[in-house]
Every structure is written in structure tokens, then in C-alpha cells.
């Protein structure tokens, strides 16, 4: 065993009910769990020594049982757009993942990764181009959100963003929005992702609102079905990119396994059973999926699905030669969806491209 790897589990992988159970087994009062949880997820302390209100015997028990190690930041990059920061976080096994912090008009959002690499193989995506390396654990997902929260608390992200007129309140600053749209396919790592969501949603700690978490999937149907069955409190975004099975399979290889008609059925079911809508993402590629005909096909396909379509002009990646759909094509696409089909639609602002922090650009490489 490599001595750099602690054999104890990270405390950030446990839910509060699990900690309560552990404390009961140790014969400690649940009051201490409440304090501990608040240190971990409200104060976001970086070590056991910052928990003065925990009795020494409780602290030493915890130290013996768990690690509490914030992720090491291997690199931080700030985009010239002034709104986007990217963090390369080093993992214990020598791998790394990227987390993106976006601040715009007072809204702070963390774009969090769920895997190192991705097995889904979409050719236009840099994460897909690197292949699948491994799933992240729940604690590695939680750690990304905590990292952003700590930065907000310490004011470390304020300098350039103060140009926006936002003064960070260092005692109460909170990360309120999280999108699972970083590296990887979250529904290919369902258990760890949902465990992380449970931990971050816990009202007595991090308290992320259900309406503030969006999970984006390439269309892993069994995952969407399970999410529906379990009524998981996350918004669902589905990467569509094409409105016919043939065109979609050319862009998204897993469409062979999970065909478009079944995907739309699963989305419809999600909406009707949970009373929600689905956000469909459409990476706009010039001459590939930006035509008026395709926009009409989307309108027809989504006729009976409560939906919103987010158009994302293609971001450049080294392994794909496509060109982003032009502004004019994006506006025409949007116009058709809205005017002909009453489908709400947005065009995603392109941000953070100079630091490769845009959708589909994350690779988590150290050099
Ligand atoms: N695996 C999930 C979430 C991560 S990708 C998914 O595919 O949905 C997040 C979003 O970025 C997806 O909508 C994906 O289609 C989009 N994306 C991937 N590569 C892109 C690129 N080069 N340009 C623009 N969007 C891209
Ligand atoms: Fe994976 Fe999503 Fe990239 Fe496709 S777009 S390769 S599913 S991360």
C-alpha cells in the first residue's frame, strides 16, 4: 500500500444519518453530530483542529476513523471574461478533475465533475476524447462543491469579479447553484452522484436547494428511469443534439444502445410523474445540426414534453474539426422553436473558452 493514500475513509462521503448511526455506536450524543455537520458544511473548516466546540474525545475518535483533507488545487485559471474560473483539483491517486466557478449577475454556479474521463465517446467533447478512466467517489464530488464554497467564504474569488459590483459577504457567502455538467456522465456514476447530492442537500449543512441542482445526461435511459422512480430532487438536462435517431447516433454513439424514441418516452414519463420539465441541450454545429429543418424536427419531437431547449454553440476541442453554429443560425433555430412550437429556448453565452472551461472542454490534465 502506498503510504500517501490514507486507509481511512473521508468524512465527506458520509450522510448525516450515517454519522448519527456511527456516533450512536460510539456512545456519543447526537448533539455532537449537529456541531460536526455544521463545521463541515456550514463553516467548511479545513481540518479537525478548527472544531473547538467538539469534545476532545469525540475529535480524537473522528480523527482515528476518518480523514478530512480538502482537495489540493493543482492549478487555478481565470478567464479574461472575468466571470469564469477553473480549478484543477488533484485526487489522491494522482488523477485530477476540473471544477468551474461561474459568476454572472450575482449568480454563482459551480460546474462539477462526476468522473475522470467519460465512457460515452461523443466525438465533439474533450472529456469523451480522453476515454473513461474512473468514477469519482461521493466525497470527491462533495469536495468540489466545498472547495468553491471555501473560496466564496474567504473572498478568494472576489478580486476581478468585484468589477461586477458584487461584494462577497465572507461570513454568509454561499454556493447556491450546482450543475453536474463537468467531466463525465453523472448517470454512469449514479450512486456516488446521488449520495453527494444527498449530502449537499442536507438542510442543516450545505443546504443546496433542490431547484438549484441540475444534472446533465447524454441520455442514459436506465438512469433517467431510476431518477424518476426515486423522485430525486434534481433538475434533469438531456443532451439531445439531433432530432432523428440516425442523426443522433452519428453524434452520440450511445444512442445505438439507448435510442431516441425510448429516450423521449423516459423524459415524458419523468415530466408526468414528477410534474417537472426537462432541459434539452443542443450543441450547435455549423452545417451539421443548425438547419431550419432540424429546428422543426425538434419542435415536433418535443410536442408532448414539457421542455426547454438550451442551444450551446460548439466549443473547440482538439480532437474534433466541427465549427460552431453561427449566431445567426442559433437565433433562427431559437426563433423556430419559440414561435412555431411555443418551446422556451435559450442560447448559451460562450464563456471561459480562453481557459478551456466551456462545456465539453474539460480534461483535467496537469500540464
Ligand atoms: N455527460 C453529460 C454532462 C457533461 S457534458 C452530458 O453529456 O450531458 C455537459 C454538456 O456539454 C452536454 O450538454 C454536452 O453535450 C455539452 N458539450 C460537450 N462537448 C461540447 C462542445 N465541444 N461544445 C459545446 N458543448 C459541448
Ligand atoms: Fe461524456 Fe457528456 Fe462528453 Fe458525451 S458530452 S463524452 S457523455 S461528458
Helix content: 25-40%
H-E order: HHHEEEEEHEHHEHEHEHHEHEHE
The number of helical segments is 12
State the distance separating the first and last CA atoms.
Answer: 27 Å
Which small-molecule ligands are present, each listed once? Answer: S-adenosyl-L-homocysteine, iron/sulfur cluster
What's the Cα radius of gyration? 21 Å
Overall mean pLDDT stands at 91
Structural class: alpha/beta
Find the count of extended strands (DSSP E, 2+ residues).
Answer: 12
Largest sheet: 10 strands, mixed
Describe the global form: globular
| Order of the strands making up the biggest sheet | 1-2-3-4-7-8-9-10-11-12
Report the sheet-strand fraction.
15-25%
Describe the structure.
With 367 residues, the protein is α/β, with parallel strands linked by helices. Helices cover 35% and strands 18% of the residues. The protein has twelve helices and twelve strands. It has helices at 16-26, 30-43, 56-65, 126-129, 138-154, 158-161, 190-201, 221-229, 245-251, 260-274, 292-301, 327-341; strands at residues 72-78, 84-90, 96-104, 107-111, 115-117, 132-135, 177-180, 213-217, 235-239, 278-284, 307-313, 345-347. Helix 1 packs antiparallel against helix 2 (30-43) and helix 5 (138-154) packs parallel to helix 7 (190-201). It is globular and about 70 Å long. It binds S-adenosyl-L-homocysteine and iron/sulfur cluster.
Which helices and strands, and how do they pair?
Blueprint (H helix, E strand, L loop, with lengths): L15 H11 L3 H14 L12 H10 L6 E7 L5 E7 L5 E9 L2 E5 L3 E3 L8 H4 L2 E4 L2 H17 L3 H4 L15 E4 L9 H12 L11 E5 L3 H9 L5 E5 L5 H7 L8 H15 L3 E7 L7 H10 L5 E7 L13 H15 L3 E3 L20
Parallel strand pairs: 4-7, 7-8, 8-9, 9-10, 10-11, 11-12
Antiparallel strand pairs: 1-2, 2-3, 3-4, 5-6
Helix pairs in contact: 1-2, 5-7, 8-10, 11-12
